[in-house]
Specification:
- The chain is of the alpha+beta class.
- It has a four-stranded mixed β-sheet, covered by helices on one side.
- Helix 3 crosses helix 6.
């Protein structure tokens, strides 16, 4: 390793077993996918290949995420914390992160305040929830899911649906039907977000572009 890679490694503090905890996060939906561990060798391989490599504490060996399942994780960015003893790795996942087939290893809920709406609720929170759900559908491909159907059919089908829904929005607006427009606009936003996921373009980048245009 050279340059910035070598500098970053020198800043890291591996524990007494030579390991570093690594939080893996979906670069698109921002969902935390898993917590794993790297030693210096797996970190080097991750930096060299731009895919995640870890150290298995149970098997006591190096492992390349997705080597057998095909569910690799392309590294988008990597950051270490203020103490240099933990990493956050942003990835583009090619399938589920969990060995159970789940999109994220963190799928078991312990505590939530979802039923208690805060006074100043984020009115755009549903977009984040929808982005995470679409990401999970792409990774897990549950049978019978309409979103799974779209991903299985591919970009041409998704593009066709975006076009159809855009046309429906125009018709609803021409009809001056508030209820119809609300329904069709929701369909359009959903299909557009499916397209963004298929194209690996995070919604954050679209929002950033809108901010630039203010």
């Amino acid at each position: 390793m050279t340059g910035a890679e070598a500098f970053a490694v020198e800043k890291l503090r591996f524990d007494e077993k030579g390991l570093l905890p690594v939080i893996v996060q979906d670069a698109g939906s921002k969902t935390v996918l898993t917590l794993a561990y790297m030693n210096e060798e797996s970190l080097q391989k991750s930096l060299e290949t731009k895919e995640t490599w870890f150290w298995s504490r149970s098997r006591q060996q190096l492992w390349h995420k997705g080597e057998t399942s095909g569910h690799t994780q392309r590294i988008v960015s990597m950051r270490y914390d203020c103490d240099g003893d933990a990493l956050v790795v942003m990835v583009e996942p090619n399938g589920p992160a969990c060995h159970t087939g789940a999109y994220s290893c963190f799928s078991q809920e312990v505590l939530t305040d979802a039923d208690d709406e805060p006074v100043q609720a984020d009115r755009f929170a549903i977009l984040s929830e929808l982005e995470e759900l679409i990401a999970a559908r792409e990774a897990e491909r549950p049978e019978g899911s309409y979103t799974t159907y779209l991903f299985e059919k591919g970009v041409d089908k998704i593009l066709k649906k975006v076009g159809e829904e855009a046309a429906e929005v125009i018709i609803a607006a021409k009809n001056r039907s508030r209820e119809e427009l609300r329904y069709e606009a929701s369909d359009l936003i959903f299909h557009l977000m499916v397209l963004l996921r298929e194209q690996k373009l995070p919604l954050d980048e679209v929002l950033t572009e809108l901010q630039k245009r203010r």
